[in-house]
Amino acid sequence: MASLWKNANDVIDFAIGEEEKAVAMYNEMAANATSSEVRKLLHSFSAQETEHKLKLIALRQDSPLSLTVEQLALLEEDCTPDPAVAATMDRQDAFRFAIFSECQAESLYSMLAEMTQDPETAALFRGLALDEKGHRDHFEKLSRE
What we know:
The chain is mainly alpha-helical. The protein has five helices and no strands.
């Protein structure tokens, strides 16, 4: 099986792509939301994911991240592709999908925070992981309502 990532920049590029998918997902969910409160929350998440993308782009340009082959393999093992998004998703399916996606992002960023030697980069990844955990917590709450 071919490796998903050859270096740290590949991981960052993957994360940027995942943030772009999250922005699109939250915008689509907001467009279909029946509650103005939920719509506002989803637009807020979309804006936060856009901020995450911009932080990752800046990090990639600065390239302070270096990962070993072993670390890349660990990240890849933990990274499960998102399930396919179905056009006919109901509210609960959409929330389950969002929870799964946020959990994956939180895990990736937490692992990257542990792997990096640069304190500023580690802090950036810890902050991203906390944001993703907050999103997941909101979706878990909404899915119970």
